[in-house]
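Quick one: co-fold with NAP.
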Amino acid sequence: MKTVILTGSSKGIGLALTRRLLSMDYKVYGISRSFQNPEKNFIPIQCDILDSKKLEEVIGYILNEETEINLLVNNAGIGYFGPHEQLGVRDIQTMIRTNLEVPLILSKLLLRELKKNQGMIMFVSSVTAKKISTHGCAYSASKAGLTHFSNSLFEEVRKSGIKVTTIHPDMTKSNFYDNLNFTYEDEEDCVLLEDQIADAVEYVLKNSNNIVINDITVRPQKNKIKRK
Ligand SMILES: NC(=O)c1ccc[n+]([C@@H]2O[C@H](COP(=O)([O-])OP(=O)(O)OC[C@H]3O[C@@H](n4cnc5c(N)ncnc54)[C@H](OP(=O)(O)O)[C@@H]3O)[C@@H](O)[C@H]2O)c1
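Sure, here it is.
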């Protein structure tokens, strides 16, 4: 059985990834502040990932418990949108820390272990990393930074046998839009399902024996958003 550490396992894409990885016989350490019902081979780790000291302790604990970690999935993320001058300073800080700083720290803490096991790191970025995003300048900057980090990290560690993949989802049905003033158009070809992101992750895991899939971008057929 392989072991994965996944952030943001409580809802949305992270919950779908948790269920998929469990079905693929992974033991899942899920890090978030809240949890759904526990399942077999799922170890809930309650932690605010912005508490760097606790996060470091948590990783130390897991490394102590497990003989081998095979996969790190940096999924937790948040979005604040609107004209940039109207964003709160705290919201900007929280978003940059959650979306960019934490994945950088977790990668740093787990690289030695993953090198040992020829493991894999996945980053859940966003299509906004690759395009101009008015009213999402800071969010897209956090995701562009994440994608750039991922690409550079792969070049740094590829000789050690580590695989690095960035997933770029477009609008996906999840709790991400709960506190925003816009949301997805709830029609089949206008929004992705969380399970479709899990399909992409499963594809990467099943097709990475002798190759590295660095980038997957998943988009719905149509592009529509809805004001609330
Ligand atoms: N939905 C989309 O349209 C979309 C599109 C492109 C990319 N993405 C990216 O996909 C990833 C997952 O988003 P989602 O759509 O699944 O959103 P979501 O439903 O809001 O889930 C976010 C997850 O992140 C966790 N999280 C956030 N802040 C945290 C913190 N400080 N400490 C611990 N856990 C924290 C949440 O757990 P708790 O609240 O329980 O702590 C939750 O499990 C994000 O990186 C997002 O940027 C989403």
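If it helps, The chain has a mean pLDDT of 97.
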